[in-house]
Q: What sequence folds into this?
């Protein structure tokens, strides 16, 4: 077995650092399955209804696009880190529709890193997400705060 | 067959109007299934790992909580309206963890309504979401812009 890599901690997530993840597409079946369960609007469910809508064809639920990015960052970054989860998302923008089989590439950049004042074992990092389709167009952006444990507890600031 | 209700349009979504949707819970299986596909972090996937985490037990992915609200509003409001989809979400806050089988009640309030200046057939509405658990605690809030067609094209403002 290969030696296990040390987990990424708060200290590793310095502003300006960025991470890219391998492209992934949503198939027509994945789009319809997700919409059936979570977002049953005609333009996510049915090709004919979607063609008749202002989208002109089947498009993925924005929640599925967000969830796909969650999968990419969970596998590619958070599960290799000391992540303690996220308090929320800011300014999620669905800029272009996501179509079946379009390869989507996510880049995540550390925008800001704040050590916790009250809890010296952790800090919060603001990540900016940029999701680009096969034509190079931005389809989604969002900002996300994630809490990470520090490598070693900081000296108390009291 | 009952007479079909007229679709809700931009004009019906006046600031201050609010809509509540019947409570719905996420089962343990639904939480694990969603996490397996979209958010494979240990505290969403496995009870023992979740107990050992700072969450102290299995919690739903925040993306699943958002998707559940999407389902409630799609079925309860958008599919009975002239909705044209959403350009995005602001300030999604995951305030308390969502646990298996906790009944979640969504209330959506119209915060703002802006007729389009360039396209007289539509307008954009800002909705505030409040999701409350069985103990009456707020578990999630978010703001969402949704575009709706107007009842009849407005007189051109040129």
A:
């Amino acid at each position: 077995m290969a030696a296990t890599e040390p987990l990424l901690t708060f200290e590793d997530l310095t502003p300006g650092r960025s991470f890219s993840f391998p492209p992934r597409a949503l198939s027509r079946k994945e789009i319809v399955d997700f919409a059936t369960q979570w977002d049953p609007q005609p333009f996510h469910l049915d090709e004919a209804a979607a063609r008749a809508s202002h989208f002109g064809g089947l498009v993925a639920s924005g929640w599925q696009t967000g969830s796909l990015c969650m999968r990419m960052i969970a596998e590619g970054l958070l599960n290799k880190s000391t992540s303690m989860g996220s308090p929320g998302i800011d300014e999620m923008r669905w800029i272009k529709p996501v179509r079946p089989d379009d390869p989507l590439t996510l880049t995540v950049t550390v925008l800001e890193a704040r050590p916790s004042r009250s809890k010296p074992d952790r800090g919060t990092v603001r990540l900016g997400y940029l999701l680009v389709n096969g034509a190079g167009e931005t389809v989604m952006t969002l900002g996300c705060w994630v809490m990470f444990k520090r490598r070693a507890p900081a000296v108390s600031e009291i």
Q: What stands out?
A: Helices of chain B lie at 28-38, 42-45, 47-52, 62-76. The longest helix of chain B spans residues 62-76.
